[in-house]
Amino acid sequence: MNPSWSKGDVIKVTKVMPDSVTIKWPPASDNSGQIKYSVLVNGVFVGETDNTTYIVSNLEPGKSYTFSVAAEDEAGNRTEFRRVKKVRTRREKKEKH
User: Fold this and answer.
1) What is the pLDDT of residues 31-78, one digit of tens each?
2) Is 16 within 8 Å of 61 (Cβ atoms)?
3) Pairs from 34-37 (Cβ < 8 Å, separation ≥ 24)
């Protein structure tokens, strides 16, 4: 059986910095109990986690990014990637002289 998301589950952005974004999502359900999550940024794989929170780092200030997450169980069954709206990182503050 494939892992599944509840209807209406979405990725939330919990923190936006100039060079990083923290995303969070509800856990997927699966009959095996063991789930890992793959994270994409602009369609490119950036990492895996067992948690439902992920900090995406090494981003550019003031740039827009699209984040996606898929859940996968031990048997290799995977959900579709869930997508959040584009998020723009903060611009770096200019130092006053």
Assistant:
1) 877 899 999 999 999 999 999 999 999 999 999 999 999 999 988 899
2) no
3) 34/73, 34/74, 35/3, 35/71, 35/72, 35/73, 36/71, 36/72, 37/69, 37/70, 37/71, 37/72
The residue with tokens 């200019």 is 94
Pick the CATH number of 12-88 from 2.60.40.2550, 2.40.50.100, 2.60.120.560, 2.60.40.10: 2.60.40.10
Tokens standing for 89? 């990182």
Q: Which two tokens stand for residue 7?
A: 């209807």
Length of the chain: 97
